[in-house]
């Protein structure tokens, strides 16, 4: 993952996303992953930067991509006690009409569901 992207997700620098969106930076920048397969939303959830989520296009697969532990950003938000993030992601799924059973019972590799 590009260090500036990681730093932006970790610090909650929404301006970085807006600047890159306005500059028509290729989408593949946002889809980069860490060695643990975390994407920018996993990182933002870990540090409770939910405003970062709001800058990602609603249909983006980043919301449901798993890391090497089988965790989605929803799992990470639940694990770190980020209630606002959990609520945002559940409401986001409802808006997209994603099957409720999939989002409510999606489990990670340790069989922990968010």
Automatic annotation (TrEMBL):
Residues in the signal sequence:
none
Q: Which SUPFAM superfamilies match?
A: Ankyrin repeat (SSF48403)
Q: What name does the UniProt record give this protein?
A: Ankyrin repeat-containing protein
Per UniProt, which keywords does this protein have?
Answer: ANK repeat
Sequence ranges of the ANK repeats: 69-101
Query: Mind telling me which Pfam families this protein's record contains?
Result: Ank_2
């Amino acid at each position: 993952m590009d260090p500036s992207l990681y730093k932006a997700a970790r610090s909650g620098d929404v301006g970085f996303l807006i600047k890159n969106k306005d500059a028509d930076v290729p989408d593949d920048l946002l889809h980069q992953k860490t060695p643990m397969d975390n994407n920018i939303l996993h990182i933002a959830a870990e540090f409770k930067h939910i405003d970062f989520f709001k800058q990602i296009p609603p249909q983006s697969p980043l919301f449901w991509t798993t890391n090497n532990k089988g965790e989605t950003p929803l799992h990470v938000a639940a694990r770190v006690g980020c209630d606002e993030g959990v609520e945002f992601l559940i409401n986001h799924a409802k808006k997209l009409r994603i099957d409720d059973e999939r989002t409510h019972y999606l489990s990670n590799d340790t069989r922990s569901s968010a």
